[in-house]
Amino acid sequence: MHRPSIAVVGRPNVGKSTLFNRIIGERKAIVEDTPGVTRDRLYGSGEWLNYEFNVIDTGGIEIEDAPFQVQIKMQAEIAILESDVILMICNGREGVTDDDRFVARLLQKSGKPVILVVNKIDNFEMRNDIYDFYELGLGDPYPVSGSHGLGLGDVLDVAIDHVKMLDLGEAVDDSVKVSLIGRPNVGKSSLINAILGEERVIVSDIEGTTRDAIDTKYTVDGEEYTLIDTAGMRKRGKIYEATEKYSILRARRAIERSDVVLVILDGERGIIEQDKRVAGLAHEEGRAIVIVVNKWDAVEKDDKTMKKFEDEIRNAFQFLDYAPITFVSAKTKSRLNTVFPLIRQVDESHKKRIPSSTLNEVIVDSVSMNPTPTDKGRRLNIFYGTQVSVAPPTFVLFVNDTELLHFSYKRYIENQFRRAFDFTGTPIHIMGRKRN
Ligand code: GDP
Ligand code: GDP
């Protein structure tokens, strides 16, 4: 099951941001030392009754200079496309407006669960003001006060009920989830079409029946894959992808649901800042990664061009030093056959388990080759290590003092692990834990 998303929709000033902040609470975004990765204010995570979910404030996505109706239509459609449950927010102090009716109609047609939230009901006496909202045809209105933090529990209860119902309908799915991410026009749609058009790719299910109706299932050499979000990208995404925030939001959502992320670069136009941002997200989420340079047909080449571009990539994406790179063309279909073997390889790395005995042999060897550091006369002592999880492979080193396990030595150990085992294409996490 993937983490469900709840979107907040409504006209300006009804209190969407206030409610968004309430729902995500004081939860601090995980701080990563990845360059170029900053968290958008419009995307956060929350938790209720042990359910973790994402929250999207669609009010944060804007088309510059567009009239209000276009703006709100886009926001509603993004909510419909990107979330599992929608909270439609109204202002209880203003009553029902024409704009509310407009938004409600869009949401009604979507078939997605919508919860009608009437905000700014700051005290008990005001609760009578909510009955007018029945006319929107979205069921019971829920009174809340974003600024006082009232009523949200009831709303989240209902939201989680919807999520649970969706889960019941979702079959167990062991296929390898693959997504293609990259800025607009790098050739994602063309690549998807080219890949699905390959002879050995058997597309089994174009429009799925689960909640992810926009995923494509297919089989290659007996292995089952799910290509995430492809139809969505082909149909709707194009219209809004132009707004960078939406493009990043959609990338983030696809990454969260993936095992393997193909980071697509444009060989013709080179690397730009936005490429680093989306790639940074995949790294941050700990996904298996393949870097695919597309449009290689359009590049004037000699025998050094590939190596030169590879150096540029390594330099721009230093945090992705583990990711393999392949050069392809969706247009001429050249080298497309390199993609699946790499997907398979990085997926295996991502799910790899190293037996403790083997792991500890490598640790002992590593320490004897490069003794542990000392700090103020105390030496780091690694007693033993163990792999605690996969996807990505995560290791715990039991040590005398975690303060002594500096970044540089961790990095050294990581490199030794990479040398001993094939972790091509996957980040690996190493943590220290104190043992007395
Ligand atoms: P958004 O444009 O929909 O994101 O709305 P904001 O969250 O920015 O809120 C708009 C205004 O309404 C701000 O001045 C908030 O302080 C105010 N506001 C938000 N929630 C409440 C509430 O529950 N009660 C009252 N009285 N004001 C609120
Ligand atoms: P997306 O926005 O990332 O989905 O990109 P598209 O698949 O829509 O492609 C954007 C543009 O690049 C289109 O005009 C494609 O025809 C072109 N394009 C895609 N792949 C290739 C390629 O391999 N070579 C060349 N020369 N052009 C390509």
Automatic annotation (TrEMBL):
Instruction: Please verify whether the record's keywords include GTP-binding.
Output: yes
Per UniProt, GTP 1 binds at 10-17, 57-61, 119-122
Pfam families according to UniProt: KH_dom-like, MMR_HSR1
Start and end residues of each EngA-type G domain: 4-167, 176-351
- Any GO BP annotation: ribosome biogenesis
Positions binding GTP 2 in this chain are 182-189, 229-233, 294-297
* InterPro entries cross-referenced by the UniProt entry: G_ENGA, GTP-bd, GTPase_Der, KH_dom-like, KH_dom-like_a/b, P-loop_NTPase, Small_GTP-bd
Instruction: Please verify whether the record's keywords include Transmembrane.
Output: no
Which top-rank group of organisms is this from? Bacteria
Q: Which UniProt keywords apply?
A: GTP-binding, Hydrolase, Nucleotide-binding, Repeat, Ribosome biogenesis
Coiled-coil stretches noted in the UniProt entry, renumbered to this chain: none
Gene3D superfamilies in the record = 3.30.300.20, P-loop containing nucleotide triphosphate hydrolases
Q: Which GO terms describe its molecular function?
A: GTP binding; hydrolase activity; ribosome binding
Which family does the record assign? Answer: Belongs to the TRAFAC class TrmE-Era-EngA-EngB-Septin-like GTPase superfamily. EngA (Der) GTPase family.
What this chain does, per the entry, is described as:
GTPase that plays an essential role in the late steps of ribosome biogenesis.
Its quaternary organisation is: Associates with the 50S ribosomal subunit.
Protein name as catalogued: GTPase Der
According to the entry, what is the taxonomic lineage of the organism? Bacteria, Bacillati, Bacillota, Bacilli, Bacillales
